[in-house]
Amino acid sequence: MRAAWLTLAGVGWLALGASAARAQSTTRTCVEVVTRQTDAEELRRLVMDELDRHKTHRAAEGDCESHLRVEIIALDVGRYVTARMNTEVPHRERVEGDDLEAAISRALRVVLHNDPVRLRGPRQEDVFRASVRALRDGQFLYGAEAFQVVGVVDGEVSSAPGLAFVVRREVLAWHLAARLSFAHRLDGNPEQLALTGHAGLQLQVSWFPWYSGDTSAYVGGLLGVDHVRFEGPAPLHGPQDTATFSKTGFGLGLRTGVEFFRTTTGRLDVFAQAVLPAYAATDEEGGVVDSWVPTVTVGAGMLF
127-137 vs 2-20: helix axis angle to the nearest 10? Predict the structure, then answer.
C-alpha cells in the first residue's frame, strides 16, 4: 500500500506541476473604482488593500497585466458592489447593512479566482517552482457532505447514511483534498448479516477539466483508511447467537462528480465514489462475516 500511496502522490504532484507551469507568481493589476460617493479615492485605496491580501495579485499604477473595475451602485432597495476582471463576466454582491468592506471582499474573491491572465498567462517557468508556487497560492475550501454508503455482503446489498467533512486545496485544475466520513445504519435485523457502520479518512486528487467555468465535472483517485462494522449471526458462538465484527484497513478508489456554482462563495458538489479495500473482513472467532466488501458512496455536499 505504501507503493500505491507514493504512486498516487507522485501522479498528483506531476499533474499539479504541469497545470501550474503557466501560472504567474504575482499578477500586476490596475484598479478602477466607479462611484458617486465623495470618498471615491478612499474606496479605491480600500479595494487596493483588499486586492493585496491575495497572494496571486498585486495592485499597481502602471505596467499592468490585468485590470480590475469595481462599481458601487446605490439604489432605493440597497447598495451593490459589481466587480469585473478585464473583459470577463462581472460579479455582483449585495451590501449587507453598512458592511461595504465585506461585499468588496466577497466580490474580489470570485473575480480574482477567474482572472484569465492568471489562468492562461504567457510566461513559463520550470515545473518544480511552478508547483510550489501554485500550492502556496492556491485556495482552501471547506465543506460538509451527506451520503449513502452501499456494500454487498454475502450477496446481499447493505447500506448506511452518513456525513463527511472535507478540506480541499484548489490549484488551477487540480484539487488536493482530505475527507473524514462517518456512517451508521439506523435500523436493521441482527439476525441478518449487514454492514452497520463505516468510517473513513481519505486523501483525494481530483482533476477539473473546465475549472474556470461555473460548472465542471471532475474525476480523481483516492487512498485512505476505512473502518467497517458488521452485525449478524455468529454461528461459531452458537446457533442462535448474534454478534458484531469490525475491521480496519487501507482502501484505494475512484471518485467522480459534478460541481456547480464554482464562481460563487458556495459550491454544490454531487458525487459518486467506489473504494476497493486491500483486505477481507474475516471473523475467525464468531464467524459473523467472511467476505471482501467493496463499497460505493453517492451523495452531495457544499463547499465554501
Answer: 90
